[in-house]
Fold:
Amino acid sequence: MKLLLCPICKSELTQCGNSLRCEKSHCFDLAREGYVNLLTGSKSGELIGDNADMARCRKNFLDKGYFQPLAERICEIINESNSRTVVDICCGEGYYTEYIKVNTGADIYGFDISKQMVRLAAKRRCGANFFVANMADIPLADSAADCAVHLFAPFCENEFARIIKSGGLLISVAPGRHHLHKLKEKLYDTPYENDEAPPELKGFTLIRTENVKAEIHLNSSEDIDALFRMTPYYYHTSQADKEKLTGLDSLDTQTDFFIRIYLKDIPQGLSYETYKTRN
Ligand SMILES: C[S@@+](CC[C@H](N)C(=O)[O-])C[C@H]1O[C@@H](n2cnc3c(N)ncnc32)[C@H](O)[C@@H]1O
Ligand SMILES: [Zn+2]
Structure:
């Protein structure tokens, strides 16, 4: 965990036994599962972010491999860029973090504001460094990362720019235009398509966008329910519409992931192909 900073005084943290300490003697214990809680103030991550139920649901669904094509493509991009230190921003329960660790061998740091999510992530024991933190104040050194991945999560571009080295990558993923459209057709009379406009991020240049698409077949009501609960639609759908999924025990739908690759501090006009040849 050598790149972590004390969230109170911002000096380096070093491991002493089962805790991390800074030069001013601020001390943070490693939890039994191996993660460290670096969220200060409020309820220290206990009640913030996704709860234990949402975390378990997400883990059960993702571990079945339905979104594996996305995880594979992310690893290819990381390997093509020769990134050795990777940060998984808002890592959730660690499915992608583990996949990246296993398939790239990079040093990987994953954090999330939800302690429940990070606890499940750390239980994977995959060799990644997990910590609880807020992306608005990431306890990592400046330019710590060769690459950061940011999947289905909110933005905080100033902090992302601070922790990524000059010339490093930000791989950001959002639902593509047709993501889970058949699920939405079951729920809504007029399902909408997702907006794919990539946000402009100060300090970064967008060098490539691409979609990863696949057909998935869900063959149980549990998987359909878990998928629905993982989406933002779950929180914006009326009870009457939610009930349209009752009794549904199979569903064929498309996954469509929109990947945006940004480079930090690189002038406009550099293509992804040129970038790859420089690495
Ligand atoms: C939709 S989930 C995505 C999780 C993971 N990236 C994945 O794709 O499985 C969004 C995650 O962002 C986390 N999150 C939301 N606001 C955050 C913040 N301010 N700092 C850190 N994590 C945050 C939530 O706790 C949740 O785990
Ligand atoms: Zn300190």
